[in-house]
Amino acid sequence: MTTITIHSILEEFRQDAISHRDLGDKFERLIVAYLKTDPLYQDIYSNVWMWMDFPQRGGTPDTGIDLVAQERATGDYCAIQCKFYDPNHILDKSDLDSFFTASGKSLFKKRLIFSTTDKWGKNAEAAILNQQIPVERLRARLRTSYPGIEGEFINHQSGEYV
């Protein structure tokens, strides 16, 4: 029996994608499923939407926000950016600018960035610090204790698996 890891899923996405956009769409759908099924995030979020399905988007096209999650306890909205890059890609601040602009509205109280690269440029690292709307960075990392998939995301600030 082959063990399914987060890395094997991401590699399958890389092989099967017909375009960069298709690759991004697959990763976004994976993150939606992750947020809806992971026990930690099930407790935190009551709803998770693709941006185009988000009821509060008011017809706004996709200009930087990929997903939106609604916090169970407060009803607040969290804007989510999904960055699917080669693990050796260096994420630049310019890769995040449209997300920061789109999610800087008063509707959002928190931001999450999921990335498949641990390599962030110094300006990208600096950009997420001390924002008025807090930013949490999660990156793909191997972990073996999660049932079903041997792989997880790790919180960049705390170093904790989530």
Structural summary, described in words:
The chain is of the alpha/beta class and 162 residues long. It has a single domain (6-155), classed as 3-Layer(aba) Sandwich (Trna Endonuclease, Chain: A, domain 1), CATH 3.40.1350.10. It is built from 5 helices and 6 strands, in the order αααβββαβαββ. A 6-stranded mixed beta sheet has the order 1-2-3-4-5-6. Helix 5 (122-127) links the parallel strand 4 and strand 5. The longest helix has 18 residues, at 20-37. It is globular, with a radius of gyration of 15 Å.
Strand content: 15-25%
Order of helices and strands: HHHEEEHEHEE
CATH class division: Alpha Beta
Tally of extended strands? 6
In helices, the fraction of residues equals 25-40%
**Spatial sequence of strands, sheet with the most strands:** 1-2-3-4-5-6
**Protein structure class:** alpha/beta
Total helices: the number is 5
Number of domains: 1
Q: Pick out the low-confidence regions.
A: 142-162
- How many angstroms separate the termini? 26 Å
CATH fold title: Trna Endonuclease, Chain: A, domain 1
Molecular shape: globular
Give the biggest sheet: 6 strands, mixed
Reported CATH architecture: 3-Layer(aba) Sandwich
